[in-house]
Amino acid sequence: MTLDRLDFKTDVFPFIIATAGEFAALYFWLQFLDAGQFVQANVVLWAGFAVERISVYLWIRYIYRSRGGGPVEQSLWVTVAGLFVITLSEVLIWILWIALADGEIGAIAAAPATNMAVAGVVLMVLMTIEHSVEMGVLKRTNPLAYVTSPSTLLFTFMEVAGAVGWLAFVRADRPLVGALVLLAGLSIEHVLQGSDLRPDTGTERPAPAPA
Q1: Which of 54, 139, 147, 189 would be 155's cystine partner, CB 3.0–4.6 Å?
Q2: What is the pLDDT of residue 160?
Q3: pLDDT at residue 208, as a whole number
Q4: Which residues of 45-63 are buried (b: 16+ CB within 10 A; e: fewer)?
Q5: Is 0.85 surpassed by the pTM of this model?
Q6: Is the pLDDT assigned to residue 77 strictly greater than 80?
Q7: CA geometry: angle at 199 spanning 151 and 14, to 5°?
Q8: Distance separating alpha carbons of residues 24 and 157, to the nearest angstrom
Q9: 3-class SS at 59?
Q10: Is residue 85 a contact partner of residue 47, using CB atoms and an 8 Å limit?
Q11: Residue 106 to residues 35, 38, 132, 204, Cα–Cα distance (Å)
């Protein structure tokens, strides 16, 4: 799906909400962590990711389904459980990333630049897996198809590059520049991911059978 066929109200706006949720989650999470306020850090991280997940879920349920994406008939409990598991996995990935980047895992801690590079590689690998599973679930296809997908790798890289650049600037006492880098990376990621998730309205496709 090409970007020029995206509609702002139905295709872009939900992902603006998702971007705002994830950006706020990460930005304030790091601020609270650096201030030693670990409870607040985790609360804001969960809250921001919840906003991201719910906005995408609502898009899938009320827009994607009406355009040939297939029915999304799941119980409330199944939906809540799915959102919880996906959010938990991403929270754990980000916690591992910051621990690696800041050299807090003593067995593999090295020079700051090395820590940052290793953390970036780990983040790329784990987020590729995370995004592949998400895409597979949302598109109701095999997640393995997305692990080596150039599009999935590209929007994952944009998120990772934005995060690594953000942290590097924050650690260099340039938080505003870092925030702009993070926002740019997340924005590009969500526009590309939204483009991939949008069903092709140009062809008729049978709705997949309920799982």
Answers
A1: 189
A2: 97
A3: 38
A4: bbebbebbbbbbbebbbeb
A5: no
A6: no
A7: 80
A8: 20
A9: helix
A10: no
A11: 21, 20, 30, 55
